[in-house]
Amino acid sequence: MTRVDPDFYRRVMGRFATGVTILTTRTTDIEHAMTANGVMSLSLEPVLLGASIEVDARFHDAVLEAGVWGVSILPSSATGTAQWLATRGRPLHNQLDRIPHVRGITGVALLSGALAHIECETTDTLRTGDHTLLVGHVVSVATGDDQSAALVYYRGQFGALQ
Question: 57, 79, 113, 145: which sits with the fewest CB atoms below 10 Å from its CB?
Answer without folding.
Answer: 145
